[in-house]
């Protein structure tokens, strides 16, 4: 298996991401309600797919596993993955279902709200039988969110993919990416997200997600530590432009963020995660080396910040030199 991992891209270890990719319709003017928006720009979206592209843009090696409608949007999205160097061997098309759509409201501060069209969309219909298990087995890291846990048959496919990865000794990475409008209720979201919590090797959550999952103050370390469990290698809490906090078995701390003019926060967390996964895939001793981890998180903070300065997720994902430039300026 190690040989298979190494042979994929001049020795770059493979990160497989799993879940949804969709079209975001982003209003051409920020701060206007959806009903009053005059026009929309279509942008590829879906956190796990954004992470896959973030990885290749930073020189890493990634593959995406998910299902698309056999429609123009579905083929457009898979083409975008291919153009960005993402392996699409795990991508499938469903002739009977549409590719998911989301209408995004951009507030004037760049934060957003979502209205989804998925009833059911193709990504929700991926079955366990359709999984490309050999692709998952060849990964160094298997990364996923929680949207794929909402409905069957995708939920069973998600759980089977995690099991296959774990059995092959692949590291599991989880970014829950809470999207409440997609769950039947807040309780269902909390229960669904926490149902697989203790399987992951590393988890990234935002401060808002800490507040939602614990119903406590996300700035309180005691509250954050409710999300820790024995066996977790790394827990990251992102605090927007303030940076991030990190927790491992042996050390904890925070790394300050970068101040940029925020246009659209879409994809910032995915840019952060993609950057972190590229680093962990190359060197998983980070969990035991605080100085190395802080350097990697500084780089990930820079990637997240750069992504907020432009509309859309995938077009705004940075390359390595852009992140290094921002870090140099910050010094």
UniProtKB/TrEMBL annotation:
Its annotated pathway? Glycan biosynthesis; starch biosynthesis
Name a single GO biological process: fructose metabolic process
GO MF terms here are: ATP binding; fructokinase activity
Report the PROSITE patterns cross-referenced here. PFKB_KINASES_1 (PS00583)
Q: Does the keyword Magnesium apply?
A: no
Give the Carbohydrate kinase PfkB domain ranges: 14-318
User: Sorted alphabetically, which keywords does the UniProt record give?
Assistant: ATP-binding, Carbohydrate metabolism, Kinase, Nucleotide-binding, Transferase
Q: Which residues cross the membrane?
A: none
Q: Which family does it belong to?
A: Belongs to the carbohydrate kinase PfkB family.
Q: What is this protein called?
A: fructokinase
Organism expressing this protein natively = Cocos nucifera (Coconut palm)
